[in-house]
Design the sequence.
């Protein structure tokens, strides 16, 4: 590694700055190993304590991670802007990209007509004094939450789901605190937890959501917060079932020391009932984004929770970013109120349901286990992620390596079904079978 990038410095601050420069320039790639503490100390003629302190600072900022026998490495997605992306090999020319996690742009509602109508209705520009959650949006959000069994006495708005989760964690936790997260889970959340200087505890996930023994173990390990996905879990497609919700509610009841965060990012796209845990603990929040059903560029989420938690989130927003644009709030409200848009979202959910179930069935016919109850992703366990991703790339398909989503979970690949059409299912399933088990003859079925 030293031949490619030389870490320099005689103090912990200089060493950490040198490593950050390497990450920012791309000389230190995501996942790349850093020298052992004693080896780097000897090389630079500094004390091991100096190097250890530098590494600790970098870990607290989420730039590096220590992975047992694999040593200390640059995180897959460190929270610093870099000059080049090295998370995964780019798709070959002409390859189909199933790695993005994005909804199908063909199924998103058009924003133009609503923007045009909004432009005609806006009236005088809004000033700083009116920068709160619009009452009409709050009323509409409460109606939607109440219909799903989510208490919505207190509510606010944030700049998307991850923005809301970041504000919740920052308002309740301090660097070094432990956060229980799904494993495998949402890569952006894992990166956020690291960037906040928090410690992630992985909770195993099955098709019914976070497992009860896994949550129990995380609580015993000192978790101060638990972040779970209600439906369309990324990357496995898990959805919390009624029985799992009952078991988790019983386990969490009365835990005054725990912040419970639920993420319902799929919202109207999900084709299964919601079984919320909202209110199981005294401190809780339920976050629902509009990005997946209505478009990723709509950076808005509505957040319900207990009075103190919602007040903290709204207060931090007021002294930071300030507010979520009222123009954006009006646009979301118009989309919610439009029956034609509701019909488009319903049909999009049905389309994803067919593609996802079709792929899971096609893989099962080829002897492969795949997970995907809801949402737009399918998770396929594999013996070796690098081999599977590379083989599929060579066959013209780009999928995401599961390492971005994992803490201690077994290897897998994430497949986004957004751009898969029915005619693609059989050839793609053949390609996956070949990539996972290279000795299989083409077209094999169990």
Sequence:
């Amino acid at each position: 590694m030293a031949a490619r990038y030389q870490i320099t410095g005689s103090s912990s601050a200089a060493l950490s700055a040198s490593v950050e420069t390497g990450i920012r320039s791309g000389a230190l790639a995501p996942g790349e190993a850093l020298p052992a503490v004693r080896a780097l100390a000897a090389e630079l003629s500094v004390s091991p304590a100096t190097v250890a302190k530098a590494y600790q600072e970098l870990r607290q900022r989420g730039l590096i991670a220590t992975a047992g026998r694999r040593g200390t490495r640059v995180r897959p997605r460190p929270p610093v802007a870099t000059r080049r992306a090295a998370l995964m090999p780019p798709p070959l020319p002409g390859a189909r990209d199933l790695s993005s996690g994005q909804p199908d742009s063909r199924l998103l509602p058009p924003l133009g007509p609503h923007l045009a109508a909004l432009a005609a209705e806006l009236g005088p520009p809004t000033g700083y004094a009116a920068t709160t959650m619009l009452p009409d949006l709050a009323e509409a959000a409460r109606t939607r939450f109440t219909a799903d069994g989510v208490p919505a006495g207190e509510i606010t708005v944030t700049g998307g789901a991850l923005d809301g989760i970041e504000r919740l964690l920052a308002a309740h936790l301090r660097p070094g605190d432990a956060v229980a997260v799904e494993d495998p889970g949402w890569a952006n959340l894992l990166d956020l937890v690291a960037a906040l200087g928090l410690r992630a505890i992985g909770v195993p996930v099955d098709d019914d959501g976070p497992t009860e023994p896994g949550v129990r173990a995380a609580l015993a390990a000192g978790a101060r917060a638990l972040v779970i996905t209600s439906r369309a879990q990324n990357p496995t497609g898990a959805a919390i079932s009624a029985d799992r919700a009952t078991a988790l509610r019983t386990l969490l009841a009365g835990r005054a020391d725990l912040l419970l965060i639920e993420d319902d990012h799929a919202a109207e796209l999900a084709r299964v009932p919601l079984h919320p845990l909202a209110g199981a603990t005294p401190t809780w929040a339920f976050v629902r984004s509009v990005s997946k059903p209505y478009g990723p560029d709509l950076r808005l989420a509505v957040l319900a929770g207990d009075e103190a938690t919602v007040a903290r989130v709204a207060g931090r927003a007021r002294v930071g970013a300030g507010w979520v644009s009222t123009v954006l709030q009006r646009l979301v409200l118009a989309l919610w109120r439009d029956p034609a848009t509701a019909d488009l979202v319903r049909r999009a959910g049905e389309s994803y349901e067919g593609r996802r179930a079709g792929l899971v069935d096609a893989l099962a016919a080829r002897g492969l286990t795949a997970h995907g109850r809801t949402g737009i992703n399918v998770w396929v366990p594999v013996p070796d992620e690098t081999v599977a991703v590379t083989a599929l790339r060579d066959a013209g398909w780009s999928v995401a390596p599961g390492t971005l989503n994992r803490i201690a979970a077994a290897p897998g690949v994430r497949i986004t079904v957004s751009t898969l059409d029915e005619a693609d299912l059989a050839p793609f399933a053949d390609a996956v079978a070949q990539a996972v088990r290279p000795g299989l003859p083409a077209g094999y079925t169990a």
In short: The first strand starts at residue 64 and ends at 66. The radius of gyration is 23 Å. The chain has a mean pLDDT of 90. Residues 339-365 form the longest helix (27 residues).
